[in-house]
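Work Package 3 (structural annotation) set out to generate three-dimensional models for the target panel prioritized at the project kickoff. During this period the team completed the workflow that converts sequence records into discrete structure tokens, so that structures can be stored uniformly alongside our sequence database. As a representative example, we reproduce one entry of 100 residues exactly as it appears in the project archive.
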Amino acid sequence: MEISTKCIAPEVLKEKLKSENNIIIIDVRSFDEYTEKHIPAAVNIPLPLLEKETMHFNKEIFYVTACGKGGGRSAEASEIIVKSGYVSTWLCNGTFGWFE
């Protein structure tokens, strides 16, 4: 996958997850927000901790960031990941859009 500053639609990501095993969804909301509702298999790394955590990332993984509605924290998080040298995009419509 290529680096993108655009978001990926939930339905596109769901299809990719069926056939690709190198995708990780990172929920960048707070632990409380994550606990309330999150995408199955999403990993919770709150935005303030993300930059430090990228040292543990893998160049072979495509990272998709998610927040509540998509585009705020998730876009910022994706930018942090890309600037750290990894491939990332953010989820259009966020966690709430995933369940629509």
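The chain has one domain: 7-98.
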